[in-house]
Amino acid sequence: MMLNMFKSKIHRVTVTEANLNYVGSITIDQRLMEAANILPGERVQVVNNHNGARLETYVIEGEADSGVICLNGAAARLVQPGDHVIIIAYCWVTPEEAKILKPRIVFVDEKNRMIEMADQEKHGESR
Questions:
Q1: Catalytic site residue from 8, 58, 66, 126
Q2: pLDDT, tens digit, 9 for 90 and up, residues 89-126
Q3: Is 75 assigned a ligand-binding role in the annotation?
Q4: If exposure means fewest CB atoms within 10 Å of the residue's CB, which of 9, 49, 80, 125 is most exposed?
């Protein structure tokens, strides 16, 4: 049996662009991708804290240290620049691997620069 587990996330990042006329996907600053262990082409879930929209797409690598978070194609209908979103990646693991899996949680500042990392979440914690 394989379990689909929370692998990593970039928490409350600010959308910098929404490009409806692009083919599709989400562009993420390369440094944030590296910190969160997210690869180009990887499937992610995007959760919009402003309107509750949830979507799945794949990742395109953006310029390092640019702070870019751009929702492309149809996904651009669900976000606006300035919205805060959570970008979540999952992985398939065995039950044994799941017991030792430590997710990467990346926290950012208002310019989408990493300020902290964690490997767990606690109930009631907010940022």
A1: 58
A2: 999 999 999 999 999 999 999 999 999 999 988 887 77
A3: yes
A4: 125
Q: What CATH number corresponds to the domain at position 80?
A: 2.40.40.20
- How does the average pLDDT of the chain come out, rounded? 95
The torsion angles phi and psi of 79, rounded to 5 degrees, stand at: -140, 160
> Is residue 47 a part of any domain in this protein?
yes
22 counts as catalytic: no
Q: Tell me if 122 is assigned to some domain.
A: no
Tell me how far apart the alpha carbons of residues 112 and 30 are, in angstroms, rounded to a whole number. Answer: 11
41 is in an annotated binding site: no
Instruction: Please measure the distance between the N-terminal and C-terminal CA atoms of the chain and give it in whole angstroms.
Output: 35
Domain that holds residue 112: 3-117
Q: Would you say residue 124 lies in a domain?
A: no
Q: Is 94 annotated as a binding residue?
A: no
Say how many C-beta atoms besides its own lie within 10 A of residue 68's C-beta: 20
